[in-house]
Structure prediction request, 226 residues.
Amino acid sequence: MFQDILYYPLCAGVEAFTTRRDSVLPYHVIQGHQVHGSRVAIIDRPETTREELEGYDAFLTNLPGVAIGVRTADCVPILLYGPKNRTIAAIHSGWKGTVQMISRKVIGILEDKYGTKPSDILAAIGPCIGPDSFQVGEKVAAVFKDAGFPMDRIWKFMGPKEKKPMEGGHHINLPEACRWTLLEAGVPEESILVSGIDTYRDPSFYSARREGIECGRNINAIKILI
Prediction:
């Protein structure tokens, strides 16, 4: 294994990881052109190109030996594995995708197409912006409330905004919002691994809020081993 890559101990038969800054991918990973939406692509050919995946933010497959992944730099990466029938998914869940509950949509497709039961799924929530760093406006906080998220678990008002970046104001716990969505979709709590790494505060990962939108991206990938 590559030392500059964060691997997730999900289960035998699958490999899942997130690259750190300037990591080299250990193999080819199918990725798309993400748009902060909720479209899901089913990967049924190993030679699928990025150009074919314009406008998709989640990918799933049951092809062994084919890695799928999403690019993040503060948004939440979610990697799923259904060990009973060997299915995987990679999800890019920014705040807009989280509000649209993209991971619940993916789980529904996994069940409808492959018969993967939510109760069988193993999940990893990778490095992303943490609750102390994800300062949002009042309107964004209201969007989460209107979408039905448990605000007592994912929202905090930290007082007047300070001169220092991300201090004060409204804050959203994005990884917890994603974890709650997985739970609501039927994934067991003990089957959800949360990295707990805040990309804004950890310089070994790219962060768009810290570095600007043109910064590099962390690659979050999952592959069924042959």
